[in-house]
Amino acid sequence: MREAAKFMLAQFEEIDGVIVIAGDLYIKNQAALDIALAKLREIGYQVDDSRDPESCSRQDGTSIETMEKNGYSMWYAHLKDIRRGKCKSCGQLISTAGIRCHGHKCEKCGAVTYREIVNGSRVRFSFEKKAVSDTEEQSDWRDITMVVHHWDTKNGYIYFYPRLLDGYYCKGQEKLCKYLDDHRDSWQEIRSIKDKRVRFIRVKYSHQQRYGFKGVEAPVIRVSDNSKHFWNHDIVEVWEGKEYDEFFGNFPVPQSLSIYEAWHWAPLSSSPTLHRKLFSSIHQVSDQGYYYQDGRRAFDERMFAEMGKFVRHFTSLDADLWDIKSRRFRLDGPGGIEDVANFCHPRSEVMNRPNVGNILIGLTKKGPLTEREMAAVVDAARDDGQRDILMGIFGKKK
Length: 398
Ligand SMILES: [Zn+2]
Hints:
By secondary structure, the protein is of the alpha+beta class. It folds into four domains: about 1-80 and about 250-265, no CATH class; about 85-115 and about 230-245; about 115-230, no CATH class; about 355-395, no CATH class. It has 13 helices and 17 strands. The longest helix has 14 residues, at about 30-45. The protein is extended, with a radius of gyration of 29 Å.
């Protein structure tokens, strides 16, 4: 998290009864909650109430009592409407609605913000398969590439130059011609009005068909590749009048945070599964099978320090001891989980579910596998569900 975002969260740490852990707020009493929620709203967050039946945090069939007792996030604060488009023609901020629809125009200057297919694009496509018989339909993988003369979006036609280029599956003029012939009713030959010698191949293709809008006829072709788009906009995030790049990660405040009402469930006492809560408080998975098995680093000291806050304020464990011992916890996935779990309970129940990823790493790794990696490969291969996924990846049918 960036310094500026930390600075914003530091304001909350000053409220008595509020603990900030990994960007979320853990709150010890109702009075502190009231202050924190008011502050969030003042900053500009929209705060959703998970008790509201309409809220997306409200899970079907879960009572409010259960949500409270099991430590669900009871409030969710997020910034609304920070995404804006930025027109590259006029440089002004515009709405993002429809900004990536072919031919959409900037509401400030009228320039087109995006064209999905531009004149001169090479478009690879297949005709929609016709069901001659079950087997024949499935076996027709053919496709073709053509160069776009123009796209008449008003009437929903692409005009291609008549030159036939290889598809991915279908190659060579003879086969391409045959493919076109087999779908003779899906296209028309059009002669240019200006010069009768110039021919185009016209295919029905509209935006509405492509996105399967209701009441629109089914598409005639399926585009699998398109060499060029026209982008005339950026997406930016705006906060207090300043623009931030959507992917740069320098936005100055957290865009969302969860708020927990800890008084319903804290302090948690030592249990074989308590470590799972600690890992989820820092948004990490507590299943050893999920991580690399080769000793690679998955955690760092700061993560253990954040978990330490949870230990100190919301469990009955010895937090001073945590501060000393956690400095020596292993930093790889399986090792770190085991160390935290053992701290939480002498007979901890650590999850170690086989993971198809581990088989793949095992199969593709250069050099010998570590003992742990080997064990993970064997475990995963024994598990029916994981084996099915793997067979899927390698394209074998059961
Ligand atoms: Zn503009």
